[in-house]
From TrEMBL, chain A:
The chain crosses the membrane at residues 12-30, 42-62, 69-87, 93-115, 122-139, 159-182, 211-233, 245-263, 270-289, 295-312. It is a multi-pass membrane protein. It comes from Mesorhizobium huakuii. Keywords: Cell membrane, Membrane, Transmembrane, Transmembrane helix. CDD domains: TM_PBP1_transp_AraH_like (cd06579). InterPro entries: ABC_transp_permease. This is ABC transporter permease. GO terms for molecular function: transmembrane transporter activity. Pfam families: BPD_transp_2 (PF02653). GO terms for cellular component: plasma membrane. The lineage of its organism: Bacteria, Pseudomonadati, Pseudomonadota, Alphaproteobacteria, Hyphomicrobiales.
UniProtKB/TrEMBL annotation, chain B:
Its main location: membrane. This is ABC transporter permease. It holds the Pfam family BPD_transp_2. It is a multi-pass membrane protein. The keyword Ligase does not apply. The keyword Membrane applies. InterPro entries: ABC_transp_permease (IPR001851). GO terms for molecular function: transmembrane transporter activity. Keywords: Cell membrane, Membrane, Transmembrane, Transmembrane helix. It is found in: Cell membrane. GO terms for cellular component: plasma membrane. It comes from the Bacteria.
Amino acid sequence: MPKFIRRADPAVLTAFACIVLLLFLGSLYSRSFLSPEYLLQQLKVASFLGVVATGMMLVVLLGQIDLSVPWSVAAGAMMACAAAAYGPAGVVLAIPFGIFCGVLIGIVNGIGVAYLRIPSMIITLATNAVAQGLMVVYTGGFSPQDSATGAMRYLATGFAIPGVPNAVIIWALIGAAMVFVLTRTGFGRTVYGIGNRERAAYLSGIDTRRVVMIAFAVSGGLSAFGGVLLAGYASKAAQSMGDAYLLPSIAAVVLGGTSILGGRGSYLGTVAGVILITLLQSILSVMQMPEAGRQIIYGVVIVAMLLLYGRAPASR
Amino acid sequence: MKDWRYWLAEQRGTLLALGIFIVMFVIYTSNHPAGFTANVVQTAANKGVLLAFVAMAQTLVVITAGIDLSVGMIFLLTNCLASWLVVGTPMQTTLGVIAVLAVGLLCGAINGAIVIYGRLQPIVATIATGAVYYGIGLLLRPFPGGSVNEDLADAMTGRVFDVVPASLVVLLAIVLVIWVPFSRSVLGRAAYAAGSSETAAYMSGVPIRRGKFAAYTLAGLLAAIGGLFLTFFTYTGDAAYASGNAYTLFSIAAVVLGGVSLFGGKGSAIGAIFGALAFRTIGDLLFVFDFDPLWQPLFQGVILLVAVSLGAFALFRVRNRLEWFL
């Protein structure tokens, strides 16, 4: 057996095995399932989730969670489209502004978790509600500009390299950056350290609060960037466009073998999780499964897979 | 220290929530065009008890240091189910009510089984089961509709002796029948002990698993009672994703306002009930003061943010920096 297989995380292998299984099932259902065009299309759809899940993974590695994803995604998309309404300068700044709004939400989360010691699932739920409130006031107060800029459409649907959608390239770049940060930098080492035992990391002289804060800011920014891409893909922003990303992004991270308690997990697993979820969604939609069935299968699959390899240690 | 001081220390969160609620409600009724009348109280009570039931459900789980992000979806699912089953002759209606409550109980038991015996993190597990419950709700009611036994619904949402809102009477009855026995039983004590320090409780031979399981199961039941009441108020079943999410979110806000510690082991369902009533009244204040309804989500979000940030005051009592990381 090659070395890399022996060293691989069983969870990641399981996830990849499930991907192969899904592809096989899909090809039984439809001949075109294995065609390069279809697979590239799936990869393009996966890349939006991939960008969001990258941020989620960083936070989960710390042993925290970011439930503000839905409205961070929506805020990123809506604010980027909103900026586009302010003349040529707005069009240029649309994408950075959208991401900036996500970073702001992330910073509030980070302050709450790192400095005020509020449980992350609570504070992120709260900021999610506030972001929702702000967006509702914004869209209701005056009529919003809701179409994406050309640059956003190009990022999401264009082809800089013939045959490879730009969204996939962006995901690959962000993923490569995350792999680099996690495996080659002190920051990444610290993230794993805090996830394993924050007290120990603190006692080793690490400014753990700053690291947690930065991680949440990055997560917020990546969620918003996912929203920007999504707006480019749909060529406009919509109110509840982020709702469909919360459960899948957590599921992708956890199914990819990252421990929800933090400190353990690899980006390769998250990639596998994202592709797995996207394929599952795709098969369900090819089978014309209604929304209800999709939600049920989703939930059941996630619980089942977690029971397979995501269990916490037994009581002492 | 005297006995009453212990009692006061234990009930501080609950009393604070009661105080906040009374202040809010006085401001609300004194600015309401109709004033403090039976009608205004009835409307307020009917809106408040929905959240109160869901908040009670959340409290039970939060006491064990867990969290149930599926309560809103159990609430929706049982609402949809009730719009099918709670109709017809008194006998059929009774059976329907029992079936709806049983389904709630089952949902809670599934959550409990997955979290405790499956050893999954409550947050991920309940998000996933929440999706399943929502999916089943959507299966039952792809479009809003259905009906309910109107005699029963009117009795539950009306007034007793033309003064006291019936929904409040039911709320009180549920507290007496479910919460009081539970919190005084061995299982209830075990749930508190598990939330306070699971290891210590386990070492002392407290049946923490059974206690936590009972808490999750009863939480499902309470959420189902909430769903049943939603059907009584609206006469329909509606699987609205946003509404289920909002109830989950607000239940956490109510729990926090009600002085229940999110780290477990502290607080009572009574506090959460007043927290829920206060949270609802705060939301309604906007209408009394003639604000644009558009601002309501933002207003509620900010209240939630402030409420959860209040917990940070505990940091001032920290003597050693290491206590931050416990």
